Amino acid sequence: MSSIFNDPELQPKAKYLGTITKDFAKVAELLKEASYQIKVRKISDYPIFVMSKTPSVIGLNLISTSQHRTEWNYNVSYLDEFVQRGLIKDVSYFQSTYKNIDEFCCLFVIDEDFIKFVYLPYPSETPLDDFIEPHGSNDNDE
């Protein structure tokens, strides 16, 4: 059994996944809201966020490294732009593999040797009440 760290082909992916997830955690809430707005305003059912270390021409800048202290820039885009630019050729395949936008963020990661679609789950929104035991108002009444 080989681990991701022993497989030379997977090592670059593991390196990227670490930096991507660390940075994503800082901006996940903003990306989730942007994704929701794209869908409810009927712009697209397939929002895509372009992550790049350098400015990208794909999409519109949403988060820049200088303004938000992130390692990556984030542009907001959607399926139609990727089709128009020739980046997605098989639309039906893309749509069939696209994950639920309420649970996952679709990222198109662009860096020197790494250009891939990555789906990351949004952090769970566990209410604070789940960690606090309820106390009745009359528990200690005498």
Q: Care to describe what's here?
A:
By secondary structure, the chain is α+β, with helices and mostly antiparallel strands. It has one domain. The chain is built from 4 helices and 5 strands; from the N terminus they run αββαβααββ. It has helices at residues 11-40, 65-68, 79-84, 91-97; strands at residues 47-52, 60-63, 73-78, 104-111, 114-121. The chain has a 5-stranded mixed β-sheet. The longest helix has 30 residues, at 11-40. It starts with 10 loop residues before the first helix and ends in a 21-residue tail after the last strand. Mean pLDDT is 82; it is low at 1-10 and 126-142.
Main attributes of the structure:
single chain; 5 strands; disordered N terminus; 142 residues; alpha+beta; 5-stranded mixed beta sheet; globular; 4 helices
The overall number of domains is 1
The helix count comes to 4
What integer is the average pLDDT? 82
Distance between the termini: 64 Å
Q: How would you sum up the global shape?
A: globular
List the secondary-structure elements in sequence, H or E. HEEHEHHEE
Describe the oligomeric state of these chains in a short phrase: single chain
The percent range for strand residues is: 15-25%
Alpha-beta classification = alpha+beta
